[in-house]
Specification:
TPR-like_helical_dom_sf; about 625 residues; three-stranded antiparallel sheet; elongated; Tetratricopeptide repeat protein
Amino acid sequence: MKTPATPSSGTPHPGAVPLGEAGTTRSEGSRGSAGPGGASGAADSTDPLGPGGHWPLLRAGLRLAHAVVAHGVRDEREEEHESLCALAEAPAFAAFGPQEGCTPLERGRWLAERVVRGVQQARDTAPPVVPGGLSGAAGQALVLWCLHVAVGVPLGELGAAQHGDIEPPLAGRDLVQKIEGRMWLSARPTARAEAGIRTLHHEVQAALRDRFPTREDEADAELARAHFVHEWRRLAHLGQESERHLLILLGVLAPAPLRVTFLAEAWGPLPGPLRDLGTDTYLMALALRRLLDRGVLLVTSRGDTRLVALPPLMQPLPSRCLDAPERRRWNGLALRFLGVALRGDTHDPDSWPEWRDARPHVLHLVSLAEEYGEGLQEAADLMDRLSVFHRMRDDDHDAALAAADRAVRLFERAGVPAPVAYATYLVNQAMAVRAVDGPAAALEPMERALAVEEGRVDGDHAQTLNLYASLLAGAGHVRKAAAAFDDALATARRAHRDTGSDEDAGAVVMVLNDYSVHLLHHSPEQGTTAQDVARDVLALLDEAESLGPPGGYGTEQIMLNRAEALRRLGRHEEARAELERLVAACEEWDEPTLLLFAALVGLAEVLDDLDDPRHAQVLRRAHEVDDLLDT
């Protein structure tokens, strides 16, 4: 099935209505009023709906659709089939509908059904008809044309069929002349008729887009603009503020697909009408489907993930309907929306697919926040989490550092409203600096974080001290690192005594493990000192193991460190058993990890110490895991 593509409409119409006026709800059929995307006065040859544009083709296609309906009403099967085949070849509808794998009758019937739907929608969305006089001519003719095409009523019988739809009733040749002569067949619509023609044009195209990808109208941006303005006014006329707000939100975001789940999960910061959509899955799905059918939305899938976006040429248009204060307000709303939609812990791999999809939106909104000088605190938080995402997910250390630096600058520009958050941003900046420039360069931002946290006694501060100790060790300051580990452990133990929380218990376990690694790494492997350090390490690890349930946080690291301490004490069989349990646990994850590689290397060394011939086999497995990690 081919993707629809818009035929070129030639030169854009020079008198299009500015988008700033798109929110008005004035009657499109009133005297002197131009239709969406049109201007007062007779249309010229450059108008997409004028003699050289789409209107003659659309008019011919509509008359073919009417022939199908009329033959069907009169049960003239042979003539109906001929009309269906002719409709299938109509140039007006060449870009729409099934193109392959169907017969002309099937294609013609698909087109006829949706053209009828389009003219019925045009009738429903026509402006109020003014009884009598020429000021209502466009609306009157449009209602009559809908009856003529959708219901199949002959022109001569419309006088009776339309009774009750408009006033005063019209009949006979006067009616035929009003529709055929004055408006439709002339192909040179007057200003009074233009609004009706444009309404019908857009409604039919919206119906034809049903269940098919929205066209991007790359051949004619003016046509896409006129289409959007028409839909924007139509939503205002119908009171569909929630759908207008949805278009604004998507327009404020970057021109990239947005996860539909965000709309259902992060509705809290959104304005009332849009919040109501977010709290009701059915209403949200209905709104998305309506906008998709009308060609102002693109819905795509990536596996099981549904994504939604505006067509590229329409992306900037909703924001142009807002004045400057409203644009700033909506940028703040969108920042808070993403802040809720995206998970805060970007260390967690489960959050990475969401952040990958949202990254263009984050960067776009943060740039606008910098330009407006508003929403800086929310922008800083998003950039900090993005920095961790880059550091943990794809090892893009330069991007991680750029995001971390930006987070700190934004928060400082906002006046550092929350010191606790500021310290976190500085710690993540230090981690990003370490990855790019080494541990020595990372000491400065880490010491700034410690200065902000001075006087705190909690698990977070213990973790900051622990990271500082690791940086000192990496920079070659072994004694200072040991002292910092002592401070970190004392702080973590005190915080856990005060709260007894699992989170603070986890902080103690983390410091005990990291301190154990430091002691093992900076002590001799053999001799009395090595054994004394190994016994100290086992005591630390026993404490770590006592703080959590079996298999809890840090269990695997405890096992690895314990095996190394046992080996240094000459307890090789115990070390072997510990490493075999660790390898078995890591293999259950069904993916290569650094911990599995380290466990295999340690096991191979212990087996070699024991003269166990299996050590070569285990070493080969370690090389296999290393190769997988490199890829």
